[in-house]
């Protein structure tokens, strides 16, 4: 007799009917990116909001072109442009209240500026004078994060702490399509959903991670779909439609504030420039693709809508252009000044109190600097004499 | 440890080549010779890597052999472990020093100890290429010297070339090694050039041999990677002060070539270790201790260290104050005139 025969009529009992913990249907994103502009849905949007978004887009574009120009003049070491992605950047900033927190990635200088930070302060990281040129606590803006997706768990932790405190503060964290492949992205989403943290994740899907296209990054139907597996809603939005972006992010922020938990928003957009000014995009993409997106430019979409509804008057146009020019002039002026740096700062902010080891090294550098400046003076005097 | 057989001499046409080109050629030759060699990483395909080291490999060998991965360092190295378990020889590219950190879990918990935990049944021939170090004006997280983390992890070889021809030879040897190798590429030497003949035999030493780059009699500068050219420059400058400095290029931190280093210090009686990563807990401490253990009775002065400061890597506009340069090395050399009572 075999073991099976011995066991006779044994049949494993089926597991009790399995129930998903959450109905996935309401969590699923739309099949198509959600749009407002040009769909008739914009009729419901406050005309003043549309006009404001327009002005902010114009200002944002100017910021991008100015910063790019500064790299060409050698005033800025590197700039990852968000040209074409301004609607996402602006909407991210405008969806938040002052008390809320923004967790930007290295491409999101514009969101930081749209939040109200002085245009030049947002650029220290990229210019190279200091890593973060502002006080995160003062502005409720985390440092621009260069390691990808690593800021996402921070946003969840801050939101979680805010929820424990019960103060209604929300965190919005930004990441690129490539960044969604990192482990930190997945861990952050999972924590956020389990803790029902008041956090909004904004993925700017601009088609590329440096040279790698989305198809090599994910096989999911959309990045927004990734939300469902963690138990949070995913929203798929046209990232060049500032009104749609504003609506979806504002809703997600409101939901988070009311205790509804996290949302993952995928903004479908396009990176019009190369990865940074140092990158050669011709190695991995065709100009024709870029041209196709030109017709779907965020400013163009907004202009069409405003014109159709008779909201784009000369006043608004001129005022937006003037504002943008003033901002660019201010940025140029600040960036054309040589930053005044004190090498001794190297040791100032490593610990609350300098270690003996750093005091020793600071003394060494101070002595070196003194020798160098004495030599400079001496060579200056020598030059004088030879004249 | 393995040695790569020198290729037969065909014709000898030396041309200037950059270190990046020599590294690319080493990958190409390894892939051509051994179909189990696979390259994977972020942007290694169409773009050829952000430093263009993998340029042309995807076109020549196809995307299955030179693969643009999803953007996930732990995933890149973790899948490389599985590939190696199944008989392939993965060469992974980490885009920058600080972006290798997500992969530390895989490196430390699995890559470094697989041979040991399986009693030798499962060696992992993986090469992890990491561009490292500063001096290129990179923004935050693009300039770390992470070698101390790697050398503190038993089970890994850690090598770093300083010349064009070593870049080729050491990378060939690393890929051929049956043990995991962390291959540290000094970023600021990527564009350094030398006359080099890719068709002539390369001097490929087994991993673990240091080399005397410049003979001298009055003191030894022990260094590696990006600091080698700086030390050679310092040695030239020191001649004016009457110092005849020997420069030892370690090339490999693990294994460490005690013989070459000790033989040099026996001759000179004085030593300075130079590297740009922080001094506290850095490789220099280990090296100084080893030199002291082996050469105590030959030493005329304590072994000194010239290292980067013990600070997070500074913003580019301040990095020149952090990186050990010629002057700081010469200061240390002057301090070698050590008197017991001083
Ligand atoms: C952990 C980590 N790995 C690699 C890099 C190098 N890197 C910088 S940007 C980038 C591509 C990012 O693509 P994506 O997330 O789509 O954002 P985008 O640049 O398109 O805004 C890579 C690979 C990094 N910054 N951090």
TrEMBL record, chain A:
Transmembrane segments: none annotated. Its cofactor is thiamine diphosphate. Residues 67-341 form the Dehydrogenase E1 component domain. Keywords: Oxidoreductase, Pyruvate, Thiamine pyrophosphate. One of its GO terms (biological process) is branched-chain amino acid catabolic process. Residues 1-25 are annotated as: Disordered. Gene3D superfamilies: 3.40.50.970. Pfam families: E1_dh (PF00676). One of its GO terms (molecular function) is magnesium ion binding. The keyword Oxidoreductase applies. InterPro entries: Alpha-ketoacid_DH_E1_comp, DH_E1, PdhA/BkdA, THDP-binding. Signal peptide: none annotated. NCBIfam families: PDH_E1_alph_x. This is Pyruvate dehydrogenase (Acetyl-transferring) E1 component subunit alpha. It comes from Streptomyces venezuelae.
UniProtKB/TrEMBL annotation, chain B:
Pfam families: Transket_pyr, Transketolase_C. It is an enzyme of class 1 (oxidoreductase). Its EC number is 1.2.4.4. Residues 17-192 form the Transketolase-like pyrimidine-binding domain. Its cofactor is thiamine diphosphate. SUPFAM superfamilies: Thiamin diphosphate-binding fold (THDP-binding), TK C-terminal domain-like. Keywords: Oxidoreductase. GO terms for molecular function: branched-chain 2-oxo acid dehydrogenase activity; magnesium ion binding. One of its GO terms (biological process) is branched-chain amino acid catabolic process. It comes from the Bacteria. InterPro entries: THDP-binding (IPR029061), Transketo_C/PFOR_II (IPR009014), Transketolase-like_Pyr-bd (IPR005475), Transketolase_C (IPR033248). This is 3-methyl-2-oxobutanoate dehydrogenase (2-methylpropanoyl-transferring).
